Amino acid sequence: MSTIKRLDRVDVATADLEDAASIYQKNFGFTVSRGADAEVATVKVGGAGIRLASGASVAAQLAANGEGMYALWLEADDIDAVAATFAEAGIVSGPIRIEQGRRVLSIDPKLANQVPLHIFDRKT
Q1: DSSP for residue 67
Q2: How many CB atoms lie within 10 A of CB 110?
Q3: Which of 33, 45, 62, 94 is deepest in the core (most CB within 10 A)?
Q4: Looking at the whole model, is its pTM more than 0.85?
Q5: 3-state class (DSSP) for residue 2
Q6: Cβ atoms within 10 Å of 117's Cβ, excluding its own
């Protein structure tokens, strides 16, 4: 049986990063961190994060669906076991790929209530 350990991150597309960051700060009291990339900000909530993204990286998402959640990231103990469990259940996943030091398995949004689901482990 595969083990999903935790929610890692929710990705949210926004047309106005400053406005979105302000909403999380003013309305909810969260601290918003901004990195070197001017199109991304992160809100930490417990051990998970909300990644606010704007600009070119989410332009297609915004055009097709507007603002809102566009990806859900879950961490697993072993992505091979997750893939095997999915295969046994008849769930077709994409190939395992290496991304930012993690092995990532993506699930078609049609199989996850129209949410792109990415499951990863740190066994590279």
Answers
A1: S
A2: 7
A3: 62
A4: yes
A5: coil
A6: 17
Cβ neighbourhood burial of 60 (10 Å; 0-12, 13-18, 19+): exposed
Element (H, E) at 21: helix 17-28
In angstroms, rounded to a whole number, what is the distance separating the alpha carbons of residues 78 and 88? 16
Residue 80 in tokens: 């091979």
Per-residue pLDDT tens over the stretch 30-50:
999 987 888 999 999 999 999
List, for residues 96-114, the tens digit of each pLDDT value. Answer: 999 999 999 999 888 888 8
62 Cβ neighbours under 8 A, 6+ residues apart: 13, 15
Q: Are 30 and 21 in contact (CB under 8 A)?
A: no
- The DSSP string of 94-120 is ---EEETTEEEEEE-GGGTTT--EEEE
Residues 69-104 as b/e (b if ≥16 CB within 10 A, e otherwise) read ebbbbbbbeebeebbeebeeeeeebeebeeeeebbb
Q: What is the CA radius of gyration of the chain?
A: 16
Structure tokens at 83: 């893939």
CATH class of 4-121: alpha beta
